[in-house]
């Protein structure tokens, strides 16, 4: 662990549990920033799947069947 990171960690450990929880929340949120390129790709994928489903190229299965098969796995 880098020296700066170690210093920050040591200081963070002196915080109250609530302050540490808030810090963790902010740090985790900073890792999950939206990526417009990735969002666009997922939108395209969802639209392609919907078109395939509507045209009969793609079939759906119930969640019950998925979980049943998973349990058998």
Explain what this protein looks like in three dimensions.
The chain is an all-alpha fold and 73 residues long. It folds into 2 domains: 1-33; 36-72, no CATH class. The protein is 74% helix and 0% strand.
SSE topology sketch:
Elements: H1 3-12, H2 17-31, H3 36-54, H4 63-72
Roughly what fraction of the amino acids lie in strands? under 5%
Name the assembly state: single chain
Helix content: over 70%
What low-confidence regions span 5 or more consecutive residues with pLDDT below 50? none
Radius of gyration: 22 Å
The H-and-E topology, N to C, reads as HHHH
Overall shape: elongated
Beta-strand segment tally: 0
Largest sheet: none
The figure for the number of domains is 2
Distance between the termini: 40 Å
Number of helices: 4
Please tell me the overall pLDDT.
Answer: 94
Question: Would you tell me the structural class of the helices and strands?
Answer: mainly alpha
Brief digest:
This protein is mainly alpha-helical. The protein is 74% helix and 0% strand.
């Amino acid at each position: 662990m880098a020296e700066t990171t170690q210093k920050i960690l040591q200081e963070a450990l002196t915080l109250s549990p609530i302050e540490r929880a808030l810090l963790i929340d902010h740090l985790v949120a900073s890792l999950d920033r939206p990526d417009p390129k990735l969002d666009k790709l997922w939108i395209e994928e969802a639209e392609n799947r919907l078109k395939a489903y509507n045209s009969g190229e793609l079939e759906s299965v119930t969640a019950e069947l998925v979980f049943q098969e998973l349990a058998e796995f």
